[in-house]
Structures are given as C-alpha cells and as structure tokens.
Amino acid sequence: MATTQQIIQGNLQVLGFVNTSATAIYNQIAIAVGQIVDNTITEINNSESTITNILISQYGYGKPLYYTENALGFQYGDNLIINQAINPVTGAPFLDYIYAVPDQTLQIVNQAAFEQLVTGANSQLFLKIATLNATTGLLQPLTSPQLTAFTSYFLNFQIPGLPISIINNPGNILNFNWVCTYFSAYDLSLLTTNVQNAFVSFQDSFAFDGVFFDGDLSDYVKANVPGVRDFFINNTTLDGIAFQGSATLSSGYFNYISTINANGTFNPVTS
Prior knowledge:
alpha/beta; four-stranded mixed beta sheet; 6 helices; elongated
C-alpha cells in the first residue's frame, strides 16, 4: 500500500509538477505533510484503541450493564461529585461521577433495561426505566420532575456521539379472556381469590423488558393455584391490539385491564 507521502507525490505529478527543481521542492512538502498526516492518523488510531481497551473493556463504558447500573444508581434530589479516588490498577484517578453518600432511599429507578436497535447502517440506543408505586407495589413511570432530574443525571454517563433515548412510559395494558377448569371438590370462593392473586404474583415476577407469552401465564396459574386442572386464555390484546402467543412490551412492563378478574369463567370437573 502506498504511503501518504507517495500518494501526495503522485497527485503532484498528475497536476503537472514534473520540472526537476520544482518537483524537488514539492517532494519536500510531500515528506513534511505526509509525516504530519501519518502521525495524526496514528494518534487517532491509538485514541480509538485506548477507548476500546480501557473505557469499554476495563471499565465497561458503553456496555448494557454500565447503563443499567448507573440508571438504577440514580438518587433523586442528590448531586453528583467527581470521583478522584486512585485506581489501584492504573494508579490514576478514576475521574468519574459518583454520589458522596450512596442512599438507597433516594434511588427511585427500580427497573432499567438497555436496548440497541440496528436498522441497516443506523443504530439507536434506548433505555427503558420504571419506578415502583409504594401503595400498589406495581411499576409506574417517573413523574415529570423525576424524569427531568434523571435525564440531566444520565447525560453524565452517555458516551459523546452515542445519545440514548429514555423510555419512561406507563405499562402496556394487557387484556384477555380466560377459562379455568377446576376440581369440584375445591371451594370456588377460595379458588377465585387464589387465581386473582396468581395474576398479581405473575405480574410481580415478570422480568422487566421481557416478552409476554400467554402460555407462561397459563402454566403459572396451573402450577401455583391448588385445585386448578387447566387454565386457558384467549382473545389477548396489548394496548387494544390483538396478538397471538407472545407480545413485546414497549414500556418494559404491563398492567392488566381493570376488568381482568371479570373476564373469565370457572368450569368444575370431577376428575
């Protein structure tokens, strides 16, 4: 492969610099400029290598866990400081951002999930977040003041040139009809309560940013409610849009439609 100097010299010849004395002068220019260009390219490559090997490989910058851990570490109403503690590996200060006093009571982001969406040559980065409703125990979006504070905080952990879109939406609304076949020897009133409780416990155990499978819910009810022989769900919708089998949650979590407990029937069997 031709060197930068040779490329410059070739371009000068194409432009007509063939006179011996003139060419000698421009050859010196090519040497000087070529060295500057080559040195600059080397420095850029070295910088890219440093970023890849140290920031990403050693410290985890840019990896999903890096983003989610910093999201979960957000302390509402608190201020960041620069961490100047000495890195025992490199001997240099960390120079990253931390809280002076970690305080879990201020950490309002209870769930976070990082996602990279690649479309052709384009790549988009997303971070889904949610907080916990202290009364209901269910996930919900951050309030507007909370989101403003979180967005400002999270800018400190984004790599320049790689912006991240924060998704802070109410839970997707899950709706379906259900049929519960149960052994007639079991008390129907208690069974009804247990099925309703199983809906809630399944929701609580659902992995944030997971994919909802209707079969998972059916299996969960059958495995966790004594007396249930079989459990079916059908006519499933997410935010009013019908689906079969599975659905991706754009918010990262779901809430049942308010009428979910009334959407089913119980059929007794003797065996």
